[in-house]
Specification:
Shape: elongated
Bound molecules: iron/sulfur cluster
Distance between the termini: 66 Å
Order of helices and strands: HEHHHHEHEEEHEHHHHHHHHHHEEEHHH
Oligomer: single chain
Structural class: mainly alpha
Strand order of the largest sheet: 7-8-9
Strand content: 5-15%
Number of domains: 5
Largest sheet: 3 strands, antiparallel
Helix content: 40-55%
Length: about 425
């Protein structure tokens, strides 16, 4: 490849005036190591394909050469016969002769090169350099991973490519890289992993894009710059790639000057509310006051009302418990309007665990014989909780899970039976 890049030629290991046998040129241009009618011995083939050690191509070549003859040269003959506009066939002295192709036939290297450039433009090797950021060229032959270009012999036809002779080598295309890193059998990790655990690794290449976005956000680069760097239309698209933790995002936010009188313990709450990561009756009220009477009034309201901010195992709760603790604490999932889901994956685990348990409970209750009020109550309760849990699991981060639910912190205000699912399904 290096020689190809510097000389501009396709088979630079030969002089342009050299005459080279048809079989050798077949392997150089088509890639296949099989030149005779005899199939490659399965033993030789298997041992080579195990790790593609190019040393193991030697016995295959020797076996093929031993069987290559005027009557045993079908692959070579068929290949050259099928090439439209192919180069003239010559004898050992360079005189043009007519076919059929057999071991007496030769090609002039310069004529083969012209033919390939003219008739096989998509098969040409990758020789053009990139220009690196320092302005210097960076050639494909300097890359760590290369592969035979469009070598269908191995992938499609079950043959073997002679990688030491095939003229066309190129960079890996994006699809090849994705496939190799995807963790498939005989992919990069499987082949080169040092330990068994290493071999099981995989990498979703698109996640690198997410990682880089997140790091840029983390370093304080503006979303406008990040959006421009990735060629996106709007900053909202970049937001989808921001995976900083909620804490990191909150630390970066600044409250407006009107919030200066807000007690410090409420700063995070205010930031969550202003960025719509928290919902609930107090938030709605705050936003309405902010809309109608401005920031100063809204923050005054917040200082008076939102004295509570709690992280529950299922999301945030903004209810105040300065007088009494929540009587339904740890039952937020059962229709409480104060519950807001966050991006914390543990919440979903907790909710899923509860769902499994509750479904098991319902199953057991339904299996019990009889139809007593106790069993009916158990079934009804479990069914309601299951429906509510499903709603909580499906709720998006930052959303109020049960906007029409009850305030479970104030049990007196609500009816005895919680059927939030009925309310939700009517919406
Ligand atoms: S049940 Fe409602 S009020 Fe009680 S802690 Fe959970 S979300 Fe808050």
């Amino acid at each position: 490849m290096k020689l190809q890049s510097t000389s501009g030629r396709l088979i630079p290991e030969y002089l342009p005036t050299a005459l080279v046998g048809a079989a050798e040129m077949y392997t150089r241009i088509a890639g296949s190591v099989q030149i005779s009618n005899r199939a490659i011995s399965p033993d030789l083939k298997d041992s080579y394909l195990q790790d593609h050690n190019s040393e193991l191509l030697n016995p295959i070549r020797a076996e093929q050469a031993a069987h290559y003859s005027t009557t045993s040269c079908k692959p070579v003959r068929q290949y050259w016969k099928s090439q439209k506009g192919g180069p003239p066939i010559r004898d050992q002295k360079g005189k043009i002769i007519s076919g059929p192709i057999d071991r007496r036939c030769y090609f002039l290297v310069s004529e083969i090169e012209e033919f390939v450039k003219r008739e096989m433009p998509t098969k040409l090797p990758d020789t053009s350099p990139f220009i690196a950021t320092d302005g210097n060229p960076f050639y494909p032959h300097q890359l760590l991973f290369l592969q035979p270009s469009r070598a269908l012999i191995e992938d499609r036809n079950g043959g073997i490519v002679d990688v030491t002779k095939y003229f066309s080598v190129g960079r890996l295309a994006a699809d090849d890289i994705i496939l190799q890193l995807s963790g498939k059998k005989s992919g990069l990790f499987d082949r080169y992993g040092e330990t068994e655990d290493d071999k099981k690794l995989s990498l979703n290449t698109h996640s690198l894009r997410h990682l880089q976005n997140t790091e840029l956000f983390r370093l304080g680069i503006t979303d406008a710059m990040i959006t421009k760097r990735y060629g996106r239309q709007s900053t909202a698209q970049s937001g989808a790639y921001d995976h900083r933790s909620l804490r990191e995002q909150i630390l970066e936010l600044e409250l407006p000057p009107e919030a200066s009188g807000l007690p410090e313990r409420l700063h995070d709450t205010a930031k969550l509310m202003l960025t719509r990561r928290m919902r609930g009756p107090i938030v709605e009220e705050f936003l309405e006051i902010q809309r109608e009477s401005g920031d100063a009034q809204a923050f005054r309201y917040l200082a008076a009302e939102a004295d509570g901010f709690h992280a529950t195992p299922y999301g945030f709760c903004l209810s105040s418990f300065t007088v009494d603790p929540c009587p339904k604490h740890l039952e937020c999932f059962n229709g409480c309007r104060n519950l807001t889901r966050t991006e914390n994956p543990v919440e979903e685990q907790n909710l899923n665990q509860l769902l499994d348990r509750m479904e098991q409970h319902l199953f057991e209750a339904q299996r019990r014989p009889g139809d007593s009020p106790g069993i009916r109550n158990q079934i009804s309760h479990a069914s309601t909780v299951i429906e509510n849990l499903k709603l909580a699991i499906a709720a998006k981060p930052g959303s109020q899970v049960f906007p029409n639910g009850h305030d479970l912190a104030r049990p007196i205000d609500r009816p005895a039976t919680v059927i939030d699912t009925a309310i939700r399904s009517q919406q």
